[in-house]
Amino acid sequence: MGRRDILAQSQSGAGGFQSLPALLHRNATQFGDAPAYREKELGIWQCWTWAETAAEVRAMALGFLELGVEKGDHIAVIGRNRPAHYWSMVAAQMVGAVPVPLYQDSVAEEMAYVMEHCGAKYVVCGDQEQVDKVIEIQEKVHQVKHILYTDKRGMRKYDHSQMNALHDIMAEGRAGHQRLDAELDRRIAAITYEDTCVMLYTSGTTGKPKGVVLSNRNVIESAKNSAEFDKLTRNEDILSYLPMAWVGDFIFSIGQAYWCGFCVNCPESADTMMTDLREIGPTYFFAPPRVFEMQLTNVMIRMEDASKLKKRMFDYFMAHAKKVGGRILDGKPVGFGDRLKYALGNILVYGPLKDTLGYSRFRVGYTAGEAIGPEIFDFYRSLGINLKQLYGQTEATVFITVQPDGEVRADTVGVPAPDVEIRIDEKGEIHYRSPGVFVEYYKNPESTASTKDAEGWVATGDAGFIEEGSGHLRIIDRAKDVGKMADGSMFAPKYVENKLKFYPDILEAVLFGNGKDRCVAFINIDLTAIGNWAERNNIAYASYQDLASHPRVLENITRHVEEVNKSVAADAMLSGCQVHRFVVLHKELDADDGEITRTRKVRRGFVEDKYADIIAALYDGSDKVSTVTEVTYEDGRKGSIKATLTICDAKVQPVTQHKVAAE
Amino acid sequence: MLDASEGYITEDGRKIGGVVMEMKNITLRFGGVVAIKDISFDIREGEIRAIIGPNGAGKSSMLNVISGFYVPQEGEVWFHGQKRPPMRPYEVARQGIARTFQNIALFEGMSVLDNVMTGRLNYMQAGLFAQAIWRGKAEREETENREAVEKIIDFLEIQHIRKTPVSRLPYGLKKRVELARALAAEPKLLLLDEPMAGMNVEEKEDMSRFILDVNDEFGTTIALIEHDMGVVMDLSDRVVVMDYGKKIGDGTPDEVRNNQEVIDAYLGVAHD
């Protein structure tokens, strides 16, 4: 362990560092010259050291004082991942205010609810688009005193009586520092470990979003524990591209970054994320399963287009990696010949592939947010990429269980994270207690009381069990989604959906069948993968809808569903969940329509209600169904699409006579 | 309606300045064909000026006269209060006029970045030898100009294709790259020859927004030719309508829209 690592860890127990501003001060004084933030701007990676960062954040905090921000005020932050937006959150903490990052792709209506709920008087906006939304909301809520924006483009003609560029506010803060310094220092000194660090809105698969209040203790203890668990050091590089409103991004890009003192890299724009990922080559990485799925889909598409020789080489070595790659990574015994062959594969295939994906420096990384398909997970592990799973929640400040190195499996989510206690109640629901347990839901004592009990135990809403022997937690599904089929066998939709989603052709799948005698499914095709396939097979199509209803596409999807049925049938407990009939939907499930959350989780109940006519047709044996669907465009306007969908039948395997004993 | 020297205020509150370019009684012939017949109009500072008309009306010829590529047989072109003598294209470029083409004219094999860099040619003076060894002035110049180009790449949101060869881009993006190259020259007057031709609705919306943004952000005066009436009426401050080489209308979109001659030209009239 180098000196640098010891530095970061010697202050454990949070000795004296009870807030992010305090950690910032530590980083700026102890290793002020080390890079803290990078952002690609004008084609070049611009860098800020910790000392520079501290100066910028302070200037911003002084600017906030100049504006009249009071202790306890809420400051909403809406924008893409940029250093200035991260700084504004820490600057808000300095003046005793509470930062509230919001999802930047929310439509104004959604944003209005959250803004009104938290009562934010100040808003930091990324660009004109966000400012416009806030102005629209302002017509209803009349609470915003001042809007700040980072990108000046297109802002010249706005009425600036209640609006400023963040940059100008910082300049004002710097100019007024002699007058304001004492007040700022007084406010920083007043921050306690129990003060609110941040408020994050959970996207919520049901109901309105809830504001989760996290204290400095929650954030710093969680960051410390998790950093020690994975031996994170000052030398990590991460790429921050996930929504700033997501708890994961707050913990990784702010909590752990400030605790360890590592560097946060911000991509140039959402479109360049993949290129930037490759240029940075993060050592520590996290992504929802979707990103890994997408990358894998892209790799497979490109391999389809590759020359025969390359394709054969890829297939050969990938088969070998599948056999031994994961075991080598876990440090398990592997024969010398196999190791040699793996080393050769590393030179010819794995190395170049990892480089293309941007994972050549990958030391440790997590997939979280949703269950990942085992095949996808194994693909990355077999390449020697130390991808692990964790299980967490906003209410837990991310960490509930984590997979330790060497004990990584696709079907578990690991052991309880440091300082976390876990218990499973009689109904199978997982409960936990940890230093990361949230303070409360903002202005919602009923929900707080129903989620967190007097002793600090929190109900997760997920069903699972602790595996005997290994002590690993296995998640079955959302507790409320797990049901029973008419014959009493278990209905666990996610299990089947994940198997379907492994096919590059399938973007999203939703399984229905709770309380029924058989299961049916909705399927969303993946336009990238199928579009590419159509191009190679000279299949002309005009639109998404056109492609989704093409007979040959349906044929392919039917084949995938039947393969999944075979694999599902092999699991005695879940063999009742085979898909009997399905439709390929005419539109992608979309967060703007409320069908999935901003973190891309399917809102099952909502989808079930919205498409009740299609589900009915799936069960009543008709072979076609006509439907009209309302859609919301990105600018909030509404429209509708009409379609006639073909219902497909899939072969199912005979159900093994194994019923779960009734509890 | 218009004061000759003062300019005017547009509906959305932008201030339009004095006359930048004035076409006086322009007539252009190709042999016996009269492409443009005695046309006069002006372009004012900061405005978006459209030239519209049915196929073969002489729009592109008019644009080529403005750009100095065609020299009219009769009439005068006044630019910034001076009568413009016949010029070579590079001399026109140095005067601060840049254009895009109806049929994309990019260097297909070069990357987007290199293509846009060519727009900065007028700002680089280093000699061939200095460029070859890339020392001193050549290096300094490239750094400065690269920064200017990157600002435009950022402005037009084409960062993700910066290093992509142009030949691999879809049509709509190529059009945007062409606009980027024209902007790289920091023109005072930007000529756009059918910037939306062949685009789908979404691409048209994007392009319209960029044209408005360019005008708003850099204050660039823009003259454009366009077929799509909807786009023209939304974008431009004033419109010149041409038909068979003649000017049949000139004014704000509303005035032009209600002009009987214009309606006839577009919809056709029965000849009896």
Question: What does this entry look like structurally?
Answer:
Chain B: It comes from Ruegeria marina. Chain B: Residues 21-269 form the ABC transporter domain. Chain B: GO terms for molecular function: ATP binding; ATP hydrolysis activity. Chain B: One of its GO terms (cellular component) is plasma membrane. Chain B: This is Amino acid/amide ABC transporter ATP-binding protein 1, HAAT family. The complex is a heterodimer of chains A (663) and B (272). With 663 residues, chain A is of the alpha/beta class. Chain A has three domains: 16-213 and 245-258, ANL, N-terminal domain (Rossmann fold, 3-Layer(aba) Sandwich); 287-477, ANL, N-terminal domain (Rossmann fold, 3-Layer(aba) Sandwich); 483-649, ANL, C-terminal domain (GMP Synthetase, Chain A, domain 3, 2-Layer Sandwich), CATH 3.30.300.30. Chain A contains 22 helices and 28 strands. Chain A has a five-stranded parallel sheet, sandwiched between helices. In chain A, helix 3 crosses helix 7 (166-175), helix 3 (50-67) packs across helix 8 and helix 9 (216-229) packs across helix 10. Chain B is of the alpha/beta class and 272 residues long. Chain B has two domains: 1-96 and 187-272, P-loop containing nucleotide triphosphate hydrolases (Rossmann fold); 109-185, no CATH class. Chain B has helices at residues 59-66, 89-94, 112-118, 128-133, 137-155, 171-184, 201-218, 229-235, 253-257, 260-267; strands spanning 8-9, 15-16, 19-30, 33-44, 48-52, 74-79, 82-83, 97-100, 189-193, 221-225, 238-243, 246-251. In chain B, the strands form three sheets. Chain B has a six-stranded mixed sheet with strand order 8-9-10-5-11-12, sandwiched between helices. The mean pLDDT of chain B is 88. Classes of the chains: A alpha/beta (663), B alpha/beta (272). The A-B interface holds A 41-44, 153-154, 156-157, 268-269, 271-272, 275 and B 13, 113, 146-147, 150-151, 153-155, 157, 159-160, 162, 213, 216-217.
